[in-house]
Every structure is written in C-alpha cells, then in structure tokens.
C-alpha cells in the first residue's frame, strides 16, 4: 500500500517514546509537537490515539533538528522499557521462549496501525520479520529501527540464556555511519533487503523464561490462582484448571469453548456437561475470569488499558471498555481515577 491512510493511528506510548528520544538529542519537543499538531498533555493518557502521519512527522522534525540519525534506535529502547510490565505478566503464563512466541502480542493491537511482526523458522534460524502497513516507510530508517531495536531487546531479555541477534536485514539503504546499528544488532548487517528481519538461533526456542522473584513474584507469579477467585471455587480442581487454561489462551485470542476443551483434552460436550454439573456454563466462567482479571490488572498502574485488553483477549481497547462497563457500571479509566 503506497498511500498513507489518514485514519491510521497509534497509541500515545509510541509517540511518547519518540518524544523522549528527541528530548535526549536536545530537540525542542514542545515546539516540534505543536508543529506536528500534537497536544503534549494528551500524551499522558495511554489510551489516547494519534494519527500515524503525526508520529512520522515527529520523526522527520526531530531528524531535521539533530544530525544523529539513530532516533529510531533510541525510541526503540524507550519502547522496550515501557513494555516491561506486559512482559512480566506474560512470564507468568509461559515457561519457554517457544510458548512466549505463541502468545506474542500483536503490534496492531498493542501499538496501533503501523504493521505486524511475524516469526518464521528454518533449520538454523528464527526469523523475526517486520511488515509495515505503509510500504514506503520501508525505505526510511525510523519505523524499522524502532520496531527491530525494541524486538531485539525484548527477545534478549526474556530467557535465562541470552538470545543475541545473529544477523540483521534492513530494507533501507546503508547509512554512512553504522556504528550504533552494529552496537544494537551485531556486525552482520545487510541493507537494501526485501524484508526487514532479525535472525536468532533456532535452539533458543526451548530456553526457559526468567521468572519474577521476591516482591515481583507475589505481584505477578501468584496471579493466575491466588488472587482471582473465592476459595470455594479454587478448591474445585476442574474449575481451577479451566481458569488456568483461560489465562493462557486469552492473550492468544483463543478464549472460546473449543480451544479450552482442546487444552483440557476434553470434547466440547464433556466440558459443557462438567460445567452443567457445577450449575454453571462456559460463557459465565469466561466472563467471571475476565471481570476478575480486569480488576486485578487495573490495580497495577504500570499496565496500560490497551495491554490489559490484550491480556484479556479483546481485539481492541474499545471492546474491553464496553465489556468492563457492562460488568462494573463504569469504564476502565473511570475505575482507575482516585
């Protein structure tokens, strides 16, 4: 697609990462945000969306001010740190890198209308590919750099063993100065390639994920069972296992009865019968899990509403907000207000 769709938008954390990177380069961000038509006060709201065109204009304005061409790499580092809380939650429902990849958040759902990251594997490598929605952006550094640098940082921090980039491909032409690119991605860099892509060792698929410890452990690792449902319900092994399955499947968008039955190695009919024996049904359990999880996640200010929507298996923030209001009578943002 060669035309930039004026309806495409991104969530404010993406724009904020560009702003923070620009500030680190000494750019007059208040002035540049005005030029891009962005109200800086709205950046504090993680649910706020801005036009993709405005985000790209921020890149261009900062680049005009600074001779440093590594803006996307810096913004990617900021984005990585901003997403750490979601990674911590993911580590409570995954045990290996392979399992994490099966749950890997969609950029379209968590960031906005920029593009999608896809994983492919051959006999030797895992290939993390970046597919932008707006094809001409592949000729520029900014979007590729921010997505690939953030992805490289996430992958290398997930597991007990490091997972370094073995090779990196970029769709844009080779810049004059590649020192920072080599610092981030290593020395094997190829430019002018058809797809922006990072290569990792295939053996890393079975690496164990790091687990939260201490205070983090009590906040995150115990979440799946201890902080969700009343004690009478969690004493039922079947309901306990069903809810654990939902916790794993919801981020994949697979919180339906057929996926849960498959996860529990039951037929759909057997699952329905066992729930009926307990005077409940699948949709009731699903909504209870989502409603209780939503309250738990919202109590953690480090998670954005968009990230919570992803963890609960909703396609977008609006669908989650509507559901939450039906459960609790107010929106997620209203619930968070003091």
Automatic annotation (TrEMBL):
PANTHER family per UniProt: HTH-TYPE TRANSCRIPTIONAL REGULATOR GADX (PTHR47894), HTH-TYPE TRANSCRIPTIONAL REGULATOR VQSM (PTHR47894:SF1)
Organism: Halioglobus japonicus
InterPro entries attached to this UniProt entry: AraC-type_N, Homeodomain-like_sf, HTH_AraC, HTH_AraC-typ_CS, Tscrpt_reg_AraC-type_HTH
Domain HTH araC/xylS-type intervals: 240-338
Keywords: DNA-binding, Transcription, Transcription regulation
UniProt key word Ligase: no
Name of the protein: AraC family transcriptional regulator
GO cellular component: cytosol
GO MF assignments: DNA-binding transcription factor activity; transcription cis-regulatory region binding
